[in-house]
Amino acid sequence: MSTITTLTSALQQAGMRLTPQRTSICELLVDSDEHPTAAMIYETLKPRFASLSLATVYNTLDTLVSLGVVNVLGHAGDDKVHYDADTEPHVNLACLSCSKIVDIPSEHVTHLDAEITAASGYKLLGARVLYYGLCPACQKKQARQATMKRN
Amino acid sequence: MSTITTLTSALQQAGMRLTPQRTSICELLVDSDEHPTAAMIYETLKPRFASLSLATVYNTLDTLVSLGVVNVLGHAGDDKVHYDADTEPHVNLACLSCSKIVDIPSEHVTHLDAEITAASGYKLLGARVLYYGLCPACQKKQARQATMKRN
DNA sequence: TTCCAAATTTAGAATGATTATAAAATAAGA
DNA sequence: TCTTATTTTATAATCATTCTAAATTTGGAA
Ligand SMILES: [Mn+2]
Ligand SMILES: [Mn+2]
Ligand SMILES: [Zn+2]
Ligand SMILES: [Zn+2]
């Protein structure tokens, strides 16, 4: 399990300073289980840093991703990129309708890293294991709307 | 293995007409193993359809994705969304430097679909299993540049 | 055939997430 | 304190993608 230290020390070891903004972004990423976007991080931290800039959020996220301590999952029905500070192998499951992403533990994904590295010679930096579809609530919503139209 | 018919009949069963543009987009997706972007598809088909529009490419891709016969993998170092007509479970492996995506067969991913459906109640539409890092060639390139700087 | 309405494609404008830029603020060290 | 490198910020710019309305194509009557 990633802790705040995992992220902050990654930044330091990369020769970067630990500013309050960067620390808060790392904290939010580790504490959150909602796979936030840059905009969500920005909005959440705005009250704490009145002058926070979106550029800082994007820059910090890019750095964390390129250091391999944060995974970038991509779009989830919205057109925003979602991030995941939990780099332990697991399945992410997104609803294309409400854009929520939940975690699914799976024994199967645990061994993929080693398998891929061995088979490919690639230097792995991150994983994007995201299945997508419709959550139960949004399935019901769709069924209801389909019924409406038919009548 | 997906054939051209998998995609075209999905469009027809959704009540859509099989136009030459749509058929060609489906063909290209099935024939290609390079996980193309909308722009790549557009450029490839432009010689055949002088008046082809990017909107048609995007619309067709969206439809195919929402029908579950094409997977959307997301960005790969570039900022273009890559698509995969191979919906058989497999690992995609992207190089963030040269943006190439290769396929890695894996026994482990085969059972994920069923496992996720059972555990979640979601209606699955697609999978995005993409690991990313640096291919061997780009690793060498980076090492060489690091050496340069040091001297 | 010819005609019609629906579906589709197209060209071009608009959107908006992300990136780039340059100036202001901050921090580390002499 | 100075000095300098790093970082943040405000704002402009980019560009992949989406939207829009007009033009084209289609399939099915008549
Ligand atoms: Mn997750
Ligand atoms: Mn693939
Ligand atoms: Zn939902
Ligand atoms: Zn490469």
Topology:
The structure is a homodimer of 151-residue chains.
Chain A: H1 4-13, H2 20-31, H3 38-45, H4 54-66, E1 71-74, E2 82-84, E3 91-95, E4 101-104, H5 112-120, E5 123-134, H6 136-150
Parallel strand pairs in A: 3-5
Antiparallel strand pairs in A: 1-2, 3-4
Bound molecules: manganese (II) ion (2 copies) and zinc ion (2 copies).
The structure holds a DNA duplex (30 and 30 nucleotides).
Question: In brief, what are we looking at here?
Answer:
With 151 residues, the first copy, chain A, is α+β, with helices and mostly antiparallel strands. Chain A is built from six helices and five strands, in the order H-H-H-H-E-E-E-E-H-E-H. Chain A is flat, with a radius of gyration of 18 Å.
- In CATH, what is the homologous superfamily of chain A? Winged helix-like DNA-binding domain superfamily/Winged helix DNA-binding domain
Amount of beta strand of chain A: 15-25%
Architecture per CATH nomenclature, i.e. the level-2 architecture of chain A: Orthogonal Bundle
Average pLDDT number of chain A: 94
Radius of gyration of chain A: 18 Å
Largest interface: A-B, 39 and 39 residues
Strand order of the largest sheet of chain A: 4-3-5
Number of helices of chain A: 6
What ranges of chain A have pLDDT less than 50 throughout 5 or more consecutive residues?
A: none
Structural domain tally of chain A:
1
Largest sheet of chain A: 3 strands, mixed
C-alpha end-to-end distance of chain A = 51 Å
Derived structural class of chain A: alpha+beta
Kindly identify the CATH topology of chain A: Arc Repressor Mutant, subunit A
The SSE order of chain A reads HHHHEEEEHEH
Give a list of the ligands.
manganese (II) ion, zinc ion
**Tally of strands of chain A:** 5
